[in-house]
Input
Amino acid sequence: IEKINQSLYEIDYNPDRYIKLVVTKNQDIDIRTFLNDLKACTEDVLSGQTDVHYNEQKFLQVKQLIERFKGREGVSEHDRRWTHKVTDVRNWFLFSASERWREDEEEFEHYSDSGGKSGGQKEKLAYTILAASLAYQFGLEKNQVRSRSFRFVVIDEAFGRGSDESAEYGLKLFKQMNLQILIVTPMQKIHIIEPFVNTVGWVHNDQGQASQLRCLTIEAHLAQK
Output
């Protein structure tokens, strides 16, 4: 998260403001109890303790967890849902986004979820975090060109239902990160994508059996419009 936040800091979410991811521990009772039980199972295991009662206690603690993982008789469905919940490490934490001023780090707005936000705002926040995550994945920095690095991303109809403004915002971010992008998009968004691509591939399927691909440079595509 810290490295992703470093990438997020380089992105202007709004003029003079950036997004920072905030992580807190989930206080859900099932998850907290499970983590405490898990810790109890492994506590002092390297201490060299050889006491019989101590070893038996550890055995029973582990046995209790395994029985729930397997599903106890009469409550197997409940145990299945519990296991799915507590063993998914993504549920151990709660994530939110803080929009902050660069000048003094003061928070402008806090996003605990996307509720109450417009479709465009949700898309903008999603594109911002996606771009930062990709930058982290590929080890990229804003406006840094690495001609020999592989940073290929396929975007399949990501802009099909969004607004033109949010699509353009996302494409500008990907350009800043110097990502190599293949965009699969319906025709209605081609005018937004044109300024950001070098080549256009037209896919046509007349009979529904064999698709045909025609590749054009962006200059040739624009000349034929």
Observations:
- Residues 68 and 74 are 12 Å apart (CA to CA).
- Strands lie at 17-25, 93-101, 107-111, 152-156, 180-184, 199-204, 212-217.
- The two ends are 44 Å apart (CA to CA).
- The chain has two domains: 1-112, 118-224.
